[in-house]
Amino acid sequence: MTNPLAFVAVFVVGACIGSFLNVCIARWPAKQSVVAPRSRCPRCQHAIGWAENIPLVSWVLLRARCRGCGERISAQYPAVELVTALGWLGAFWAFEDPFAALRVAVFGTVLLGIAVTDAKHYLIPDEFTVFGLVWAVGTAAAAVLIGVGLPFAGFVDAVYGACVGAGAIAIVAWLGEVALKKEAMGFGDVTLMAVVGAALGPALALLAIFVGALLGAVVFLFVVYPLGWLRSRRAGGEYELPLVPFGVFLAPAALLTLLWGRTVIDWYTTTILML
């Protein structure tokens, strides 16, 4: 796709989808419908009109405050819209085939929703994972007819991958529970890895778990632990290890593995193993 107007259209569509994603992030953890009622301010119940709900633009024009009561509007809303829009733009720029680009864009959107929801609420709604699983397996079946598969797994590998991904993370969760004497992961991580496995296939699903664990370890050791320890020292209390939602790291790890996992495996098999 080389038409500048097409890229603008993709960006706008991505921003609109990001706006809807914000609704899913806010409502699905509370078991609320994303269709009705219409969006309202949680403080004053001011109904948000269309002019106040334009992706990216309205947040700036409203100066990040509700028109009804002046309550501050979280920066999460434009951030999710912008990341989604850029993700869709990047997908259609990187992949010449529209079907492959659409698969990557939707998969990335689902992963973003999962990561943000897990970070905010420490849970992964079934609505995200059920849709993601149906999308991954359904588009894998469609790819057989269309003839465009990469970078996703084929249909058979998608089915096997869903089982391997869910099974592998379930084993990791069980081992963590045995070692820590408490729940190490939620069931949402298992369903997430079923989605990831269906998209990536068995081998890359295992790599995604490794990459997610590596990302989590780096962030915890160099960001979460030092900041938490400093705050505890300043407050004069003892530092307690926080609960870190694994989905926050599994989601970006899955996207990274989808895009570059095969390159890493090829490099490992042709370079490292040949030493």
Please explain how this structure is put together.
The termini are far apart. The chain is mainly alpha-helical and 275 residues long. The radius of gyration is 20 Å and the shape is globular. It has 9 helices and no strands. The longest helix is centred in the last third of the chain and has 34 residues. Helix 8 crosses helix 9.
Helix/strand layout:
Layout: H1 4-27, H2 57-61, H3 76-94, H4 98-121, H5 126-146, H6 155-180, H7 187-200, H8 202-235, H9 247-272
Helix pairs in contact: 1-3, 1-4, 3-4, 4-5, 4-9, 5-6, 5-7, 6-7, 6-8, 7-8, 7-9, 8-9
Shape estimate: globular
Total strand segments:
0
- Please tell me how large the radius of gyration is: 20 Å
What is the N-to-C order of secondary-structure elements (H for helix, E for strand)? HHHHHHHHH
The number of distinct helices, counting runs of at least 4 residues, comes to 9
The percent range for helix content is over 70%
Question: Unreliable runs, pLDDT <50, ≥5 residues?
Answer: none
- Structural class by helix and strand composition: mainly alpha
Largest sheet: none
Distance between the ends: 41 Å
Beta-strand percentage range: under 5%
* Mean model confidence by pLDDT: 90
